[in-house]
Amino acid sequence: MKMDKATYNDSLRDVIFNICNALGGFEAVQKKDGSRRQMYQPGDECLACLKDLKEYLRLEGQVKIDVLHLLYNFETFNSDLIPILLNCTNLHDKRQNRLALACVELMVIMTWPEDPNEQSREILERENDESGIDIDYNENNEEHNNKKRKEPTLSKISELLTARSNYKFYILKKSTVIQQIYLLLDKYLGIVTKERTERDQNIIRLLLNFCRNLLAIVDPPNSESLSKNKRSRVHYDLILEYKNARLIDLFLNLLTNKNDVIDWDVILIDIFYHIFLGVNPNCLFIDIKRETIWKAQKLLNEEMAKKGKLNNVNPHYKGSVWIINPDGPDLVVHKQKALKGDGLQALDDIKRKKYERTKPLDEFDKLRKHQILNPNVQDCLKSTALSFLENGFKFLLRSLKKDLINGEYDEIPQTMVHYSYIVRYFLELRLLLKQGNTIDPDCMLSSSSSIDDRRKESNSKNLYDFEIISKIMDGEGILLAYRMIRLLREKKLWSELHFAVEYLRQNFLTIKVLASSDDIDEIWIANELQSEICQESLNLEIIPELVREYKSHSHSIGYLRSVIATAHVFLHLLENCVKSNKYVETCKKSRPRKKKNRTTKETFDSDYYEKSENEEHNINYKATFEKIENKFANEITVKNYIILLEEYQEIDSESIKHVTMMFFRIAKHCQLEAMFFKLSIMEVFNRILKDYSSTKQRLSHSQENLKIFIEWIVNKLTAQLEKNPLIYIELLFPKNVTDVKLLQNGYIYEIENKKRLRPHKVDSADAKEAEMPHELQKQSKNYDKILKTRNPRKFRKKHLNTVEFECKSFLDWPSKIGVVVAILVNEGKLPILQWLQTTMHMVVRKRSKAADGQEPLDYIIKYENEEQRKALNSDPIIRLLLELISYVPKSEEKDGRIEQYWIIPGYVPEQDLLASVNWIQNYVEEPYKPSEGTVFDFIQEKKIEPQKRKPRNKRKKKEVEIELQQNEKMDDTGKSEKYSSKRTKCDTNDIDELDKVQDKSGFTEKEIETSSGKKITPD
């Protein structure tokens, strides 16, 4: 029998109520002094009831939501669970220990941080029962039905968010709960690692999760009510309680133990992420009193400025203005501005303003706010941060970095976000410490710190020494940042992508500071890292793509600021690389020793953008920099920079500097100043010039540079308008690079460009006459045929089939493999893919068995049946896949036929082969799904350039000419008959042999000499 909604709710409520009643309650207990006190007494079946509640909370979907909601209504958390936990004073007693752990287990479930939107979506997907809801089965009311179905679930989930915030407040009221958690952790962590059982490990994980959950609960926003406003500062009070209960010291001690860090690295990184969340590193070192006075003065100035702008006079008593409109009815305006004669502007002011869409804010934007901390909180966070900087990079971040590179958290973006934030935070903190030590170490510390602490922190060189972060700030760390950006872009997780971009930017800033250091070792490290960045051609184009892909409706303005700042530092590093490497370098990496027993799991998918080992390649740093700089010179990039510049009154001077520098690069370095000849851009420039000219405050250096650039562009536009008035029309339209060059250079540029690119056709007969000397045209047929063999002819051989398709250039290497594999699977070519995977595995095994130091040989792919032969020779998609996984085509001539085959070159390392196998297998199991269109939209016909004709061998041609002249002289002077007959006989043999090979293409002079048996040399 199916239960309706009301019956289900009543029965569930009764069951949970009975279980909660059986947990225990408060009773009046008489003390020894005769006084009576209310104390909590657990029930006889308390432990069994706790287990029953846990079983209900393990359910998924709507039932779990309902049980959590009922427990909140019954106040089970603060009325039962906290008292039971505090009553367990003897943790070495088995029963009390089990009771305490059972309470903590329920608390962990009730405080677990979950995304409400994701939670409601999962529930609605699972819930198919529509009983109890007034459903309209009309197809047109589908949206109405979905809304009705969501309402009860969303209301309960929103109440659970309030419940978690209250749980956090209840624990702070009973601070002994945190002390109890510390005692439990200390007990189980005191067991030697080798002697811990699986149950001990699970208990430690449970307790750490509880500490993490409390920190992850978001405080309610600030309110005018004083009681509610106190709730908004609960997070920092909780951190102080952790410090007083020695929990933070325990977390820091775990960082120094390698085994403990590896077991609980994700939980520990979550804990420190929530501790430092929303606190800028510079807030740890400011003088709080001075900062408070400065902020109060700033707020007072803003209030006075607003008060001065208010107009207290009623506009009814100002009179009205009658505006005569010759094209329509007259207008009456009640504006004071119209009295001054500016009637048109007054009309514009009273027009209805367009609705401005709310600018989206992501999670990182909410953390940018500058906060003034309590002195106790500041000291606590500062000491914790310095300890983490000293010990956190040793094991914790290295362990997580390795797992992220191996792709273990590709499906958990939250771990990527926490890792990115923590590394970025402490790299920035290190730079602040270094700058503070260089300038004045005492002024960087708060006034509340003692003199001994100041000396200790200022003299501790290890805190900002590069050795601390060297294992994180290396080439692999930068490649990991690129990898995370690529993954988050594919999943369209824009808020998480913001964290990854900031992480990459802080890496670049660290390299920039290293390059400007006085230490020779740090300069060398910076040069090496800059060279690695320049050599990664696949990753160089990611940052220009991020700038171009910005969309105002999906990305926040803070994200745009971060991307533009990253692009600024990125181009600065490339410039430094060009200055330090003025010439083209030949890079060669020695092949490392082979590691035996290497498994597939040890090869991570980031190998696809690693350089091939033992392979020489030239790097022209100047050409690379110019290529990347030109990637920013387009209309979309300029448009996105203008979007940020429109916020010139709100953004800081650094952002204005980044925009101005990019404009100078586009206009002067790329010589595309006409890119800014657009009406919308000029309107923004006009507003900025008006504000900068009317302001009474002194402009900053960045603002002065922006003003100079705008005036320079306006002067350029004015000069162009005088020469070509048609540019007035061009101001209204978008322009690409070709259009910009036409505007700057006139139509002569287009004519010259077309002449340069136009193909020239030459008649073959005229070409032959021009190439052959006039004297040689009069020779006999015998020698004329010899000359014909040297003239270029059309190739008559059957050429090898070439790859007819290619993937589009904006795809990265794994995506290209995914597109090709998806097409082949759809065509039923799975056996061919499995055969290629087996072949690559066999090559890897053969190389691993080879002796150390032996150079790997090329492996020829041998087909086993006719299907494999046709696939290798004529299937363009298979051939495209072979090119992507580093196969190389070869050909040779046998019996007048061209035979082709594919090889695996010896210079391709085993890591690349295994990475190719893994990617093919991944996309066979989970086919590549493009965000838009089909996989066939991502391939295109490959443009094959015609082969250039080989230059003529002028030296050999001259030798033949001299030989013929010598023969003529010999015939004229009358040589002996014997010599003449012998010569005629040889010539006849030459003619016969030439007739046989007349149809062969590419027949060289050496082959003619060999076949005739007589070498042609001048006498």
Automatic annotation (TrEMBL):
GO terms for molecular function: DNA binding. Pfam families: TIMELESS. Residues 1010-1019 have a biased composition (Polar residues). Residues 946-1019 are annotated as: Disordered. Residues 40-311 form the Timeless N-terminal domain. GO terms for biological process: DNA repair; DNA replication checkpoint signaling; replication fork arrest. One of its GO terms (cellular component) is replication fork protection complex. Residues 958-1009 have a biased composition (Basic and acidic residues). Keywords: Cell cycle, DNA replication inhibitor, Nucleus. It is found in: Nucleus. PANTHER family: PROTEIN TIMELESS HOMOLOG, TIMEOUT/TIMELESS-2. This is Timeless N-terminal domain-containing protein. It comes from Rhizophagus irregularis (strain DAOM 181602 / DAOM 197198 / MUCL 43194) (Arbuscular mycorrhizal fungus).
